[in-house]
Amino acid sequence: TRAQHLIEQLLSLSRQDAPGRPVLSREPVDIETLLRESVSQLMVLADARRVDIGFEGSIAPVVQAPAAELRSVFDNLIDNALRYAPEGGVVDVRLHEVDGHAVVDVLDNGPGIPASSIGRVFDRFFRVPGAPAGGSGLGLAIARTAAERHGLRIELRNRDEEDGPGLLARVHLPPASTPLTPS
Question: Which string of b and e fits 119-139 if b means at least 16 CB within 10 Å?
């Protein structure tokens, strides 16, 4: 299973880097629906690790991009949160506005990222020293490349003391996203 996952990540990275790579067609993607699908698909991992995962959406923006590429951004971030949250921990996925702009937050209550490593976690094959075995160090590189190609920006920061331990992965959606009230 790990080898298959690594092969899929390497193929994804290779496709992203291919010169003359065909541009995938952009389509209107309902981010709320996409996030619900991502959370649902990753529920098996959450259950196996006894991690309580939840979704909360107060807006329903639409982004013009290939759904598969947006899905890889969010799947990688949620998967990482589930893997780094302690067994019995919590992962929250929130779709909301910050300063009038649509964002997606993926929060976990894991160890966070040491300050000395936070600038490197998007590098290919970089793994935080002492990280649990099992990852290849490609997920965040793939997520960032796909995000930037479609006007999204990923920000990682450790949660503060009053918010509790863990990491906040925030995806800033493109300014042209159409915020709608949730259905």
Answer: eebbeeebbbeebeeebbbbb
Rounded CA-CA distance 37/71 in Å is 9
The CA dihedral of 66, 67, 72, 75, to the nearest 10 degrees, is 160
With CA atoms as reference, report the closest residue to 85 among 170, 171, 167, 169: 167
Higher pLDDT, 130 or 89: 89
User: Using an 8 Å Cβ cutoff, are 13 and 138 in contact?
Assistant: yes
- Calculate the CA 73 to chain-centre distance: 5
pLDDT band at 183 (very low <50, low <70, confident <90, very high): very low
Share of the chain above pLDDT 70, in %: 78
Q: Are strands 52-57 and 90-98 parallel, antiparallel or unpaired?
A: parallel
Q: Sign of dihedral through CA atoms 21, 24, 26, 31?
A: negative
| H/E element, 29 | strand 27-30
Structure-token match 């937050």, residue found: 105
Q: Which one, of 92, 34, 90, 38, lies nearest residue 62 by Cα?
A: 34
